Automatic annotation (TrEMBL):
<dbReference type="InterPro" id="IPR036388">
    <property type="entry name" value="WH-like_DNA-bd_sf"/>
</dbReference>
<dbReference type="InterPro" id="IPR001279">
    <property type="entry name" value="Metallo-B-lactamas"/>
</dbReference>
<dbReference type="InterPro" id="IPR050662">
    <property type="entry name" value="Sec-metab_biosynth-thioest"/>
</dbReference>
<protein>
    <submittedName>
        <fullName>Zn-dependent hydrolase, glyoxylase</fullName>
    </submittedName>
</protein>
<keyword id="KW-0378">Hydrolase</keyword>
<feature type="domain" description="Metallo-beta-lactamase">
    <location>
        <begin position="38"/>
        <end position="253"/>
    </location>
</feature>
<dbReference type="InterPro" id="IPR036866">
    <property type="entry name" value="RibonucZ/Hydroxyglut_hydro"/>
</dbReference>
<dbReference type="Pfam" id="PF00753">
    <property type="entry name" value="Lactamase_B"/>
</dbReference>
<dbReference type="GO" id="GO:0016787">
    <property type="term" value="F:hydrolase activity"/>
</dbReference>
Amino acid sequence: MEPREDDNSRHWTEPGVYSVAPGVYRIPLPLPHDALRAVNIYAITSGDSLVLIDSGWALDEAHQQLEAALRGLGAGLADVSQFLITHVHRDHYTLAVALRRKFGGRIALGMLEEPSLKITADPSSRPMAAQVRLLREAGGEAVVEALTRVFGDRRPATDESYWEDPDEWLTPGRRTVHVGRELDVVHTPGHTAGHVVFADDAAGLLFSGDHVLPHITPSIGFQPAPSQLPLRDYLGSLRLVRAMPDRRLLPAHGPVSPSVHARVDELLAHHEQRLTEIGETVAGGAATAYESALRLTWTRRQHALADLDAFNQMLAVLETAAHLDLLVLQGKLAAIKTEGVRHYTLP
């Protein structure tokens, strides 16, 4: 598998190893579902050492494709000295754990991911327990029932745990990756509480994980240990990145794009529009996040909530709740909890 220039002549999900900048390569690895077909892993090499930004999902096919891609760089899986992980979601973290068990290599993860990692690693924890609680608070009992039909209420017996602790908990600051190459670790909460991005000043690159994606808006706050106001955190993180020098965008999902700033501006505008739309649903009579989500459309295809699968209905309702709670913080709505359900009204 020989390296190719990453010139957007191929779909970004097509397997291979693509040169992004001197010593930096994008490696798309497969995911086991259709919504997001691949995740981008980035290899940073000096010739003497090899570091990966994110790792992929612990799947046999992903393992094999990563091995073939690294072979094209004249390296092997045992040559990976560090995995720098943007956040603790399965498609970014678990292959690093599987490879560490076999080959070594150190894993570094944002320190504010620790609470969610601990919950996920607990074999007695129920899948999406926090999301079920939040859905009930949002008035979304119908979505809870749909989730239970699809996923059950227990972890599958065949679900081998890859939720081991990292070797290092990352904190913001500059770190040397190779001689002559440094990255700035920047804490960008919102998608998850401990999400980080990695900025390469010298090369003008931002390894953005799921914080800034070129074609989709990342989910907000999907984690076992929920944040109180994930949308507030996310918008603050977007503004933080917008205040940094503009760089090429190296996302976890989607093609490399020329400008971080351009995409951040689009995401900020999208959420501003969404706040207006969601506020209007309350003015029109919606009282809960579930009722509000029913009055909105979802994805670029403008689907109704009922047209989404159970997992994406859950994400939609909880993101609606995140917008409503931010409107309450801004004084544009009021909220009161009655019999365990949060109701919203005009102030």
